[in-house]
Structures are given as structure tokens and as C-alpha cells.
From TrEMBL:
Species of provenance: Sinisalibacter aestuarii
Assigned protein family: Belongs to the bacterial solute-binding protein 2 family.
Cellular localisation: Cell envelope
Listed InterPro entries: Peripla_BP_I, SBP_2_dom, TAT_signal
Phylogenetic lineage: Bacteria, Pseudomonadati, Pseudomonadota, Alphaproteobacteria, Rhodobacterales
Matches recorded under Gene3D superfamilies: 3.40.50.2300
Keyword Signal found: yes
Keywords annotated in UniProt: Signal
Major localization class: other
Domain of life: Bacteria
Domain Periplasmic binding protein as annotated: residue spans: 49-313
UniProt-recorded name of the protein: ABC transporter substrate-binding protein
Length: 369
């Protein structure tokens, strides 16, 4: 478990070293904004390619950005050609960084971004569209915001249909608990779409398990250190009433496992999400019952590719059907029985992807309730 402790320490170090970026240089942004939403400029010959994300200490986001770098390298560039906008989970910083980069590039930007929370997606998209840049988003946006309302500039949005896979992992967990006892849920950032869907997946499964009580559900902000603190608090409050743990992602599970180990608990049923390499190894060792792989390497590369190819005029997003503008990414359930095969196929050597096959592995148009 040494990698878990290392992960927690790295997050602590990351916080100490983190300084909010200045929003200086926004003065020229107004000039770049003359295009207006939906009024795309002529094709951009050499757009700046950027990824805006939380940080690389999180294994999931490291894979996302590695995919972005692989796409940039497929263009014959060094991976260093990818511009990194690291927001550390701050929506305000994410927006300020995007505006500053639009000003520096005069809007000649192909941006891939997770806006950190759903409400922040609109101001980011509006800023990019007004400057004449191109943006593809993943995970977080509000249901009333759609790429086709911004012509070509808002290229695409990809999320993952989390509710059903989260329900499937929950059923694995509840069965392992013998269909009785108490379960706790540690979630992501409360306003994040995947955090909401993954908790709902657990609630859906619980309907069929009346002898299992949901003792508590609290956000852990996708963070190992916070998850460790939340789980420690749960153990103090509920003690041996807890017989299973539902984690919204793998990095949360690492904090949970460390909190359990501190209390001498080694056999608690746990499920998680993301399919990070360390989590897959824990699944193979049956220390986690299941995780769900969302292929972040492909997601990171294809999101950057979509923004870039739209910016250079290789295709016009406005001429594509809606299912090519808003779509679900791929998911794979990983259990102890198939963890070794999965690891060999997806983690030990990363598959080669055709970055111009924009929608090949996708799972259909996003559906709203």
C-alpha cells in the first residue's frame, strides 16, 4: 500500500506549492472577442492546443493529459507543444486561465477542458466562442447548454453514462455484503455530474436490497487525502455498522483503504471507479471488488483532436448530427476475474488510436432525464 501513502503525500505537497495564476493580460481579450458566439473565423492554420484539467498527481488526469500529448505527437510535434492549464479544482482559476490564454493567442486556440463544475462550463464556452476559438469539453456542463447553440466554436461535449455502471458496481458490493448491513458512500465534488450520477447508481441498487442501510453519503472532492479524513470520520461515527464502502472514484478508494488499515480493517468490501492502474492491481488482489474504466487516454486525446480539427477546418461541427456533438464515452467493468486480461490489454501497453476516428468507441448521444 506504499503507493497510497505516496499519493497522499504528493497531494499535500501539491497544495503547498500551488499558487493561483494571475489573470493579467486580459486587456487584449476584448479585441479578440469581435467574432461573437457562433461566428467562427476562417480556419486557423496553427492553433495553440491546450488542455485544462485538475492536476497530474491524480492518476486519472495524468492519463487524460497523456492522451492529449499523444495526439499532439501524432501531428509531428513534441508533446511539449501541448499547453497545460492546471486549475487544481478551482472553477475560477479554470476560467481565468482560459481567458488569459485567449488573450495571448488572439483567440487562435483549440481547447480541451473539464471546466471543474457544471455551472462553469457556460462562461468558459462563451469566452472561447466570443474570441473565435474552438473548445471541446468533457464531464461537466449543465443540461441546458449545448454545442449546437454555438455554431462551430463549441465543438463537442463528452461525458460517461455513470449511473448504470455505478449501479452495477453497487450491486457487486451489496452482494459481497450478503445483502445486509450498512454502506457508506464517498463522492466527488457535489456539483459534478459524475458525482451526482455515481451516487444515484448506488441509490438505484439499494432499492433491491431493503436490508442494507445507507448510513451516510458525503463528498470527498475526488481527493485521496479528504477521502481518508471522511472515512476516518465515518469509522468514528458508525464503527462496525459499516460493512461496505461505495467510492465515487479510485483515488477516493485509496484514502478509504488507508483509513481502514489504520483501524486494522483489511477485509472491508469496497468498489470504486476510473480503472486507474493502481486500482486495477488492487482489484486483481481482491482488495477492491470492482472498478470501471473510462479509457482516459483515449478521452484526453480525442477531445483535443476534436477541438484541433474543428479549428483547422478539417470538419465543420455544425454539419455533424447531434450525436456527434454530445456523446457518451466508453466504459469497461473490471473485476478480479478479468483484471489481469484487462491490465495486459489497456495498461501494460497503451493501444494505438486513430485520432481522426472521432466517434468510433463512443456510446451514443447523451440522454437527459
Amino acid at each position: 500500500m506504499s503507493f497510497i501513502k505516496k499519493h497522499i503525500e504528493q497531494e499535500k505537497l501539491n497544495r503547498r506549492n500551488f499558487l493561483f495564476a494571475s489573470a493579467a493580460g486580459l486587456g487584449s481579450f476584448a479585441a479578440a472577442g469581435m467574432f461573437g458566439p457562433g461566428m467562427a473565423r476562417a480556419a486557423i492554420t496553427d492553433p495553440t492546443i491546450a488542455w485544462s484539467y485538475r492536476n497530474r498527481t491524480n492518476p486519472y488526469w495524468n492519463e487524460i493529459v497523456s492522451g492529449g500529448e499523444a495526439f499532439v505527437q501524432s501531428l509531428g510535434m513534441s508533446k511539449d507543444a501541448l499547453t497545460h492549464l492546471i486549475n487544481e479544482g478551482s472553477s475560477e482559476k479554470a476560467l481565468a486561465d482560459v481567458k488569459a490564454l485567449l488573450a495571448r493567442t488572439n483567440g487562435q486556440l483549440a481547447l480541451a477542458i473539464d471546466t471543474n463544475d457544471a455551472p462553469n462550463c457556460r462562461p468558459v464556452v462563451e469566452a472561447v466562442a466570443e474570441a473565435g476559438g474552438y473548445v471541446s469539453t468533457i464531464w461537466n456542463k449543465t443540461d441546458d447548454l449545448h454545442p449546437w447553440d454555438f455554431g462551430d466554436n463549441y465543438v463537442s461535449h463528452m461525458t460517461w453514462s455513470d449511473e448504470k455502471p455505478a449501479e452495477e458496481t453497487a450491486r457487486i458490493l451489496l452482494e459481497a455484503m450478503g445483502g445486509k448491513g450498512g454502506v457508506v458512500h464517498l463522492g466527488g465534488i457535489a456539483s459534478n455530474n459524475p458525482a451526482i450520477e455515481r451516487l444515484q447508481g448506488l441509490r438505484n441498487a439499494l432499492v433491491d436490497y431493503p436490508d442494507v442501510e445507507l448510513l451516510a453519503a458525503e463528498p470527498a472532492d475526488w481527493d485521496t487525502q479528504k477521502a481518508n479524513q471522511v472515512m476516518s470520520g465515518f469509522l468514528t461515527r458508525f464503527g462496525d455498522e459499516i460493512t461496505g464502502v461505495h467510492c465515487a472514484n479510485d483515488t477516493i478508494a485509496y484514502g478509504v483503504i488507508e483509513a481502514l488499515r489504520a483501524e486494522g480493517i483489511e477485509d472491508m468490501p469496497i468498489v470504486s471507479y476510473d480503472g486507474n492502474p493502481q486500482a486495477v492491481q488492487l482489484v486483481a488482489e481482491r482488495k477492491i471488488l470492482a472498478t470501471v474504466f473510462t479509457n482516459p487516454h483515449w478521452g484526453g486525446g480525442i477531445t483535443a483532436s476534436l477541438a484541433y480539427h474543428a479549428a483547422t477546418g478539417a470538419f465543420k461541427p455544425s454539419e455533424e448530427p447531434n450525436e456527434h456533438r454530445e456523446f457518451y464515452g466508453p466504459t469497461i467493468m473490471v473485476t478480479p476475474e478479468d483484471a489481469a486480461e484487462f491490465k495486459a490489454s489497456y495498461l501494460d501497453s497503451v493501444p494505438s488510436y486513430d485520432w481522426a476516428d472521432f466517434w468510433g468507441p463512443t456510446n451514443g448521444q447523451i440522454q437527459y432525464k
